Every structure is written in structure tokens, then in C-alpha cells.
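Data availability excerpt. The first of two example chains:
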Amino acid sequence: MPLISPLPHFTALKAKQRTLRDGFHENLSLRVHRALSWLARAEACGDDDDARFIFLWIAFNTGYAEECGETMPNAARSLFESYFDKIVRLDTERRIYDAIWARFAGPIRLLLENKYVYQPFWSHHNQLPGFADWEDRFATAKRRLSQALARQDTGVVLITLFDRLYILRNQLVHGGATWNSGVNRAQVRDGAAILAFLIPLFVDLMMDNPDTAWGKAHYPVVE
């Protein structure tokens, strides 16, 4: 197995940002500054996985979010796809792929096979029409993921993974879970751990590619 480089953490990323920030476009500068602030807060959470997950998700938001209009359908997923397309294309050393499969293959597989972070399951449970076949959809999604893994298609894996993490995010942020609950604790723990190694990698890749158009930061600073 090839040697895997250490994953970046807040201290190293902050030192790198201080060295490079004078060459950043203002949009990238604001995104990275905000992301690092939330990464630092997440690292201070200790074993509070609920808080750590939420702070890490905010850090992720600083990287991908753009103004797209309140009524745009599936806006978040469209932005995910655009952001991951850039990140994967710029990841010429395959750091994301290697980190996923060398370090966190187990937790990722468990999360992707967990029906409690699969929206059609909840739609059926809440008696919405058109989701009685959620189990068939779930099986199909898992087959497609297996095919993506066989192709080493990191982009598809990331989109599928963050589709599930988004459901977990909704459960926490919209009051669909109890803090530190014993119910479904594994998915919160694994979700926080997955974000904790992916988001710093994303920020690091953004700093390595300052000439890429990252888009206007959501809610820019206005004097």
C-alpha cells in the first residue's frame, strides 16, 4: 500500500493560510478565513459529536455555498455537484480518494448503507405518496455506488455521501434529533468523523488552487 500523507488539521492550515492569503482573491480569502474559524471550533468540541458535526457542516458551507435564489429547486445539491466537480478535478494527487479508502472506508460504507440517512425511507415513513418502493430505490442506489467504487469515481462517491450527510444535517439542525441521544448514535459519530477528515482536505485544495473561480462568498462582508 502506498504511503498516505498526513491529513491537514487547523493549525497547519492556518499557518498555510497566513503564508498564502495575500495572493488570494477576496472571495477565496473570505471562504478560507471563515472555514478555518469553524474548523477550529469543531476541533474544540472534544467528544460532543453533535456539535462537532454541526460546526464542521458550517465549515463545509463556507466552501461551496453561493447565492442562487431562494426558489431554485434542489439548489444545495446542484451546488454540491459543481463544488465536488472542481475539487475532484483539482485533486491531481488523489488525496481525497486515498484518504477515503485508506482511512475511512468502513464508516463511509456503514453510513451509505444506513436507511436512517436515506430520504426516501423517511418520506415513506411519513406516509408521503410515491415512496412505497423506497427499499428497491435503496438497493439500486447501493448498486450504483458499488459501480462508482469499482470505477474509482470519487465525484459520484462524494455526491452520494453528502446526500446522506445532508439528511443527518437536517435531522440535527431542524430539531429532528435529541442532543447526545443514544438513538442512532453511530451515524452522528461516523458523520462527524468523515467530515473531520474531508473538510480540511477541501480547504487545503482550495488554497492550493487560488486561480480557480470559487464563486462569490455567501453573505459577503458589507460595511
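And the second chain:
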Amino acid sequence: MIDSHCHLADDVFAPDLEAVIARARAAGLERALVILSAGDPKEAAQAARVEALWPEVRFSIGVHPHHAQQFADRPARAADLVREQCAGMAGVRAVGEIGLDYHYDFAPRDVQIEVFRAQIRLARELRLPVVIHTRDADDDTIAILREDGGGEVSGVLHCFTGGPSLARAGLDLGFYISLAGIVTFPKAADLRETVRAVPVDRLLTETDSPFLAPVPHRGTRNEPAHVARVAEALGALHGLGGDDLGRRAAANFHTLFRP
């Protein structure tokens, strides 16, 4: 199994990082993709520690839409920062998480859009896949992926919570659909119904830890070991055991990120 999206470089994991990684390995995880916020020195320092403890991990670096306001004066600077940090880390395999968030609107939408466009163009230049965050912004997200990706950028719709139309649009672009613990929540029946229609060869498993712990861990700090619960839930939707679904999702991860 693979956790295709986690935040192990977050401060919350600093006190017991070794134990968290040990539990992940004991749960059968081959590796994880650790998401880093571009330009954050504390995360960069912890990323080095994560890599030393778990050499199989890989990284994705990007400017999240919540932080886009920092680049309002020159959105292209966000891409420059990501490019510089990617060049200094051999384990980087993607640009992200990037995208649009119209739910919280922590940054003006026009600024979010330009920062997002700049990073999509960077991913196209670097020939790296992208990790997409989209919330209440599906139409604009898909339009930008089409326009600035130019059919050359692959990636994943991370922590997918959308409906059939977003899933189909993502699949049509060649993207993968990644599910987190939300798929295990009792009130997520609509999401589970959408996921039934996603081909197994386009699914990824993630935790988005420390957030969104799956049932039965809901309400506690999430961690990569819990991705097994996500694999079990997805397997049940597709008539597969959790281990089988986990292996297939891991193969999909390798196809996309070439770790």
C-alpha cells in the first residue's frame, strides 16, 4: 500500500515521527508522498528528517491556494519558488498541492487563479504530475487544467469529494482520483456511489494526515498507517479485498509518479 498524500512534515508529527513511520511500515506501507508547502523552512527541515527515517518517501512541493495571497504582486514568483525548491530535492515527484479553494477564499479568487496557472505551466515545463486541491471551484479548476496543461500535464484530484461530473472531467483529462478517510464516513453515501464508477486502475489511496482520520479513528490525529482503512472501503465498493485494492492503487501510484 501507499499513502499518496500526507503531511508528515507538519509540526504535529515532530514529537513522535519515528513511531508514526514505524506504524506505517508495520501496516504494510511501501512508501508515502509527503506534501510540502513551498518556501516553508520548518517543513523543509522536517522533510529531511522524514527522508532519513524512511528513505522510500517521495515529495511534492507547491503553493496551496490558501497561501496564494503572498504572491499577489507577482504570481509567477510562486512558480519560481517551487522550481528552486524542486531543484534542491532529489525525491520530488510532483508539483502540489495546488489549485483553487472558493470555500474559504483565504486569497482573492483572481490571485488564486493566476498562482494556479503559473504552477500548472511549471509542471508542464518540468514534466511533473500535479496534485490538485479543488473546493467549490470545480469548473475553474478543470478549465485551467485544460487550458494551461495543454493535454500534457497528468496528475491527481486529491482528497476527492466531488460528484460524477468532476470525476468524469478528471478522468477525461487522464487524471487519477484519490480518496481519503471521508469515503468511510457514514454520511458519504453519495461519494461512495460516485467512486463505484471510477475504474480501479485510476484510483489512489491517501490519508491527508494529520487530517480526516477514517472510521474507526475519526476524531483523532490521522497518520499514514490508517490508509489501510481507506483501501478496505474502496475495495468493498469494487468487490475486492483491502489488500488487493491497496496493491492495485500502489501500481497506479507508480504509473503516475514514477517513484
